[in-house]
Amino acid sequence: MRGAHPRVVLGLHRSRHERRLLTGALDLGVTSIDTSTNYLGFRSHTVLARTVGDLLPRLTVSTKVGYFPGPERAEHSLDPVRLYGAVEQAARDLGREPDLVFLHNPEHSLHDSGDHGRTALSQACTALDDAASKGLCGAWGVSSWDPSPLVGLIDPTAPRPSVLMARAGLLVGVRMLDAVDALTAAWGLASGSVWGMSPFGGDTGDPVWDRVDPRMFLRNGDGFSRTQAAFRAAYCLPRVGTLAVGTDEPAHLAELLDALAAEADERTIHEYRSLLRERSSGQPV
Known about the structure:
Layout: E1 8-11, H1 19-27, E2 32-34, H2 39-42, H3 44-52, E3 60-65, E4 67-68, E5 75-76, H4 80-94, E6 100-104, H5 115-133, E7 139-144, E8 163-167, H6 174-186, E9 194-197, H7 208-211, E10 218-219, H8 226-233, E11 242-246, H9 250-258, E12 263-264, H10 266-281
Parallel strand pairs: 1-2, 1-11, 2-3, 3-6, 6-7, 7-8, 8-9, 9-11
Antiparallel strand pairs: 4-5, 10-12
Helix pairs in contact: 4-5, 8-9
């Protein structure tokens, strides 16, 4: 049994939700899981309650609301009544109140960058804040695959999330990195309240990881694999205190936990981000 690893959350986006994975994570000291109402074909909460309901009291559970079943495919909505109802339903399906509920990809319904979009985001945040204040969840946050559209829509009078989650890692572009920094400042969040997700860009088997050696971003990285180095570097791009990572294999999770012992090379990380900015602006690299 290892010590707890609060900086790692087991993400269930592509997970089969098997009991052995959850028990394996707990044995490794990973006590937080992240899911969503729409994962596993909108069955994630009920499957978790059925297969690992006895383990849920030992876990910190975060989930997301924003997607709803549609007649042909999932639909996204920021309607505050639907969002509030989704938090209520999540608690019922899980058999307990989630510790954290994220507003899921609000940018998908924010097609207006003006007052209408600002109002829609504000009302959605208010709905989740109300749900938290009434004890339907412990806290609320915002999870965004592309946070850039949110930057100009923050209403300083609206409730502020306690956590922001966005993509992290070496494959994240500078526009995304800057957006996370801007939202972190606008909402007054410390780096420990920022979570990263998808640190490998979706797949550790992507050919990019055979062509690029992420160990250059670590101090004395020779003792770590490329996968471990990419995972460790993701904590710095952007700067996050927690990473949500998905796997169906406890052994893979254990490998990633070992990477936390590595030390990121802050100078190389800074130079890399500068190169991303120069490339984005068209300046010669």
